[in-house]
Design a protein that fits this description.
Elements: E1 2-8, H1 14-30, E2 33-39, E3 43-44, H2 49-53, E4 57-62, E5 75-79, H3 81-86, H4 88-96, E6 101-103, H5 108-117, H6 121-146, H7 163-176, H8 180-193, H9 197-210, H10 214-235, H11 244-283, H12 287-303, H13 308-321, H14 327-349, H15 356-370, H16 378-383, H17 385-405, E7 409-410, E8 426-427, H18 429-450
Parallel strand pairs: 1-2, 1-4, 4-5
Antiparallel strand pairs: 2-3, 5-6, 7-8
C-alpha cells in the first residue's frame, strides 16, 4: 500500500522527526511505500498533490493543529505523535485494517468536536512556549555573548564598559529577552481564542511585566484574556454590514479594557507578592535545599524526555529567568543532557546489552545529548521502559542535584555544551561539568545494571 502522512510536535524539534523516522522504517519493513511530511522548525519532505491523490492511507501524527484540507476524500487516521514513536507498526497495521480511519469530507463534525476537546491548559501553555522560545533562546545567548567582555561591560558607569557589550545586552536583554512574558501571554491567548485573542493576550503580558507580576501574572492574564475574547466573539452578534467591526474594533476594545483592569486591580499585587516570595526563596536556598530541588528537577526532566512533565519543569525554569533566578534552568539543561549521553556511553562500554540498532542510535545520542536534546533517549526508553526510565531519572537527578547544590547558574536557556566556552555564561563551571559527567556515568552504570544481559552479537 502507499501511505503518506504528517508528523508535528509542539516545539517542532525531536518528536517530529523521530515519529517520521519510526513510521518510515516500520512501513518499509512491512513492505509498504511511505512518504512523511515533517512540520518541524521548517516544513520538509512536502507532500505533493500527486503523492496525496495516489495514497491509500493518510496518517496524521501531530500534537498541534495542522491544515488537513488537502486530504479531502482520503482515508485519514489521526493519532498522538507519541504512539507513532512507540509503536509505529501497530499504527500502520491499524490504519490498514480500518481502525481509527475516517473519510475526511464525512468527518468534519467529528473533527470539530476533536478540535474542541484539544483545548486543555497544557496545549495552550505549549502554544505560549512556542511563541516565547525564539525570543528567550536568542536573547539569552546574546546576553551571554555580552558577558564575554566582562560581567559589567554593558554598564556605562563601569570602567570595563564596552559599546559592543552594551549593544548585545540591549538587543538580547532589553529587546528579545524582554519579550518573554508578553509573547508567552500572546501565544496562550492565541491558542484559546485565535488571532482575535492576540491583542488582549499581548496587553496582559506587557502589563504583567510592567507591574512586576512576571510570568505567573502573564500566564493568569493570558488565560483570562483568551477565554474572555473567545466568549465575546461567540456572544456578540452584529448586522452583516458591520460584521467586520466586531473582530477589528469592538471585541479588541472590550477585551483589552477588561483584561487591563483585571491585571492592574486584581492580579497585580497578589501575584507580585507570590512571585517575589518565590524569587527570594529560590535565591536564598542553601546547598541542602538546592540538592533536593535539583533532584526533583532532574527526575522530572528524565521522566518523559520531552513530554508534558519535562516541558512543565523546563518552562517553569525558563520563566524564572525573567525574575533573575538562573540556577533552575542550569539544572534543567544538565539534567536534560544526561540521558542521551549516559546511554551513548553505555552502548560503548556495555555493547552486548544493546541490539545493533540501539548501538547505532547510541552514536547519534552523543550529539543530541551535547546539544540538550533529551528526546534522543526515547528509542531506548520505548524498547525497555521498566529498566531504562528509572536509570535515566537517577542519572539526571544526580546531575540536577550537583548543579543546584553547587549554585551553578546559566544565563542562556539552551545550547547544551556548546555555550560552555562562552566566558561567564555558566557560573561555577567546573562543578557544572562535574554534574554533567557524574550524571552521565550514573546513567550509564544504572542502565547496564538494570538491563538484561542478552549478549547481543557485535
Amino acid at each position: 500500500m502507499k501511505i503518506v502522512g504528517i508528523t508535528a510536535c509542539p516545539t517542532g524539534i525531536a518528536h517530529t522527526y523521530m515519529a517520521a523516522e519510526a513510521l518510515t522504517k516500520a512501513a518499509q519493513e512491512m513492505g509498504h511505500e511511505i512518504k512523511i511530511e515533517t512540520q518541524g522548525v521548517e516544513v520538509e519532505n512536502i507532500l505533493s498533490d500527486n503523492d496525496i491523490q495516489s495514497a491509500d492511507i493518510v496518517i496524521i501524527a501531530c500534537q498541534k493543529t495542522v491544515d488537513l484540507s488537502r486530504f479531502e476524500g482520503k482515508r485519514v487516521t489521526e493519532i498522538p505523535i507519541e504512539r507513532a514513536v512507540k509503536n509505529p507498526q501497530k499504527v500502520i497495521q491499524d490504519a490498514i485494517d480500518g481502525k481509527n480511519i475516517s473519510i475526511f469530507e464525512l468527518a468534519k463534525e467529528d473533527k470539530a468536536k476533536k478540535k474542541a476537546q484539544q483545548t486543555g491548559i497544557y496545549k495552550h501553555l505549549m502554544s505560549g512556549v512556542n511563541f516565547m522560545l525564539p525570543f528567550v533562546i536568542s536573547g539569552g545567548i546574546l546576553i551571554a555573548f555580552s558577558f564575554m567582555f566582562g560581567i559589567k561591560a554593558s554598564d556605562p558607569n563601569d570602567p570595563s564598559f564596552n559599546v559592543i557589550a552594551k549593544a548585545l545586552s540591549d538587543i538580547g536583554g532589553g529587546a528579545a529577552f524582554g519579550m518573554m512574558v508578553p509573547m508567552l501571554a500572546t501565544g496562550i491567548a492565541y491558542s484559546i481564542a485565535g488571532k482575535q485573542g492576540m491583542c488582549s493576550g499581548m496587553v496582559a503580558g506587557v502589563i504583567a511585566k510592567s507591574i512586576g507580576a512576571g510570568f505567573l501574572g502573564g500566564l493568569i492574564g493570558a488565560i483570562f484574556a483568551g477565554y474572555l475574547t473567545k466568549t465575546l466573539m461567540e456572544k456578540i452578534h452584529l448586522p452583516k454590514a458591520i460584521q467586520t467591526l466586531k473582530g477589528l474594533i469592538l471585541v479588541p476594545l472590550i477585551s483589552v479594557f477588561i483584561t487591563g483592569m483585571f491585571m492592574i486591580f486584581i492580579v497585580g499585587e497578589p501575584v507580585k507578592f507570590l512571585l517575589d516570595g518565590l524569587t527570594n526563596y529560590l535565591n536564598s536556598m542553601d546547598s541542602s535545599n538546592g540538592v533536593i530541588f535539583g533532584l526533583i528537577i532532574g527526575a522530572m526532566m528524565a521522566s518523559d524526555m520531552g513530554g508534558p512533565i519535562n516541558k512543565a519543569i523546563s518552562t517553569f525554569s525558563i520563566a524564572l529567568m525573567s525574575t533573575g533566578v538562573y540556577a533552575p534552568i542550569a539544572a534543567c539543561m544538565v539534567a536534560g543532557m544526561t540521558p542521551p549521553l549516559g546511554l551513548a556511553l553505555a552502548t560503548v562500554l556495555f555493547k552486548k546489552r544493546f541490539t545493533k540498532e540501539e548501538r547505532e542510535a547510541g552514536k547519534s545520542c552523543w550529539v543530541l545529548g551535547l546539544s540538550y536534546i533529551t528526546e534522543g533517549a526515547i528509542p531506548f526508553a520505548v524498547a525497555d521502559p521498566i529498566r531504562v526510565i528509572p536509570a535515566l531519572m537517577l542519572g539526571s537527578a544526580v546531575a540536577g542535584a550537583i548543579s543546584l547544590g553547587a549554585g551553578c547558574a546559566s544565563l542562556a536557556p539552551h545550547g547544551g555544551i556548546w555555550i560552555l566556552p562562552i566566558p561567564n555564561v555558566i557560573t561555577n563551571l567546573p562543578m557544572y561539568v562535574l554534574a554533567l559527567v557524574a550524571g552521565s556515568i550514573v546513567t550509564c552504570l544504572s542502565v547496564a545494571l538494570l538491563k538484561r544481559k542478552n549478549n547481543y552479537e557485535d
